[in-house]
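A reminder before we start the practical. When you read a complex entry, don't treat the lines as separate problems. The point of joint prediction is that each chain is placed relative to the others, so the output describes one connected object in space. Small molecules and nucleic acid strands, if listed, are placed in the same frame. In the example below there are two entries. Take a minute to note the order of the lines before looking further.
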Amino acid sequence: MNRLTYIGLVIAAVFILTAIFAPFIATHDVTAQDLFLRYASPSAEHFFGTDALGRDVFSRVVYGARISLQVGIIVVTVSAIIGIFIGSIAGFYGGWVDKFLSGYVFNVFLAFPGLLLAIALVAFLGAGLGKLILALCVIGWVGYARVMRGQVLKIREYDYVQAARALGASNMRQLFTHILPNAIQPLIVQASLGMAGAVLSEASLSFLGLGIPPPAPSWGTMIEEARGIDILYNSPHVLFFPGIAIALTVLAFNFIGDGLREYLDPKQRKR
Amino acid sequence: MKYKFVNFAKQLGLFLLVIWTVVSLVTLLIELVPGDPATAILGEQATPEQIANFNQKHGLDKPAFFFSVKSEQGFEWHGADNRYLDYWKGVLTGDLGRSFRTDRPILDMILERYPATIELAVVALLIAVSIAIPLGVLAGTNKNTLIDNFSSFIALLGISLPTFVIGPFLMYIFAVKLGWFSPTGSANPEDVVLPAVTLGAALSAILTRMIRSSVIEELGEDYVRTARAKGLSERKVIYKHVLKNGLIPVVTILGLQLGVLLAGAIITEKIFNWQGLGLLLLDEGIGKRDYRLVQGCVLVISITYILANSLTDFVYRWLDPRIRLG
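Here is the predicted structure of the whole assembly.
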């Protein structure tokens, strides 16, 4: 694994620990307003300064990690389970099942720009954490399904699977005890990149006002609240810190995914 | 020849199937609205008569689909007079309905904003290409050196930084601090620069990485050795021979990315208050719960995206005989 992967792992660890121990790290209540202290610059009392309502930006960034991690984990888990299930069925059964799933269903989901589909879903369903997660799963599963289908197609022809079949193993047994454990590697890469994607999508939708409603401290919402030109001019810190938080988190999971892919694919490693 | 035709027909079939699904999904999206659209638009105080009028005007009094399955009535057949078919008839005759709010034809509202979004996407594409080609070639010809690592790092940064972080930062540096551009709006011709750079940043990063690995691959080919052996300058070898072959996969990505740019433009337009389709969707459509407008915008953006992708596919097949024949 290369150096960037380790950097990614360290940043991801910091992010996850911050999310878990948020109540101990945060210095202020995330919704406590202090209207006498609007747009205060960073200081010993407020590490990252305060925002338009005098709320402590540091504490909000810390709690924002919680929202991102929560959305990321749920979206990755649910989409991976759905994707693995549908992908295995397509790859294992082949024939018209595969033609329908990979030839039609996958293509339809890939034909839609993911973000637009999520925006459309949330626009009609209404905003909220649950609906946001639903929308991200709807656009997320197809990536896992495609990878899984390819893996199953390849692995089901291996000798040990043939042997299991010859010994009378049921389809489900072949799939879950023989094929799945050996197909998992590229899915870990996909999950890592999916984590970056989910964090980014949550922030994007919240930025557009279609994600988690205020006053919850989502990083996307914080940037949305800080994008006015006079705020940029007078107190750029309100924008700077949540922006850095998103960028670092997404960067970290992309580094990990990239590094893992290189590690698992010897052809790329040589380069 | 026969094989080529079959392939073409298959492509066309899939294309039509995808379009059909997208239009159907968009049509049925309106059923997801909690409660009914009329109350959402007219408010809680609306009289039943007003609601009935509104529903009749926009065709919302008809059943949603050919049939419905409800727990009380069970399966019920409604016949051909339904909203799904109405919307389809409209789409085929270029009528996307009227706005729930302003009563203007949706198609007019969209066509007013469409050129601005296309302009933004095309300029972003051009900027991305003009950054990526020199950077990718530089990285590919200096494989595993400091230059290569640095450009890889820049590229990953470009992929990871979301537009809504890059945008305000660029605005802060170039509009607020340096004062080179006006921060928002689309009044002057140069106002397109900041939004286009913002939108194109991720794409230029992806392209840089692609061109890099393409160049590395082509440099190992025999024709490069021949070109060098016959005494061509390294510059000529790279730009006349290597790049020509190396750019083929890049063309595909470009087409696919034009579609991604169209979707990404929604966020960029919001940051810079760029009066395009994305802002229309967000402010007028979603912001004012003009569901008919949302349907229209989603439909037009998706179809543009699918068209761009399919066109690229055809161009790619035509460009590269190995794929055309294979």
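Discuss with your neighbour: The mean pLDDT of chain A is 85. What might explain this?
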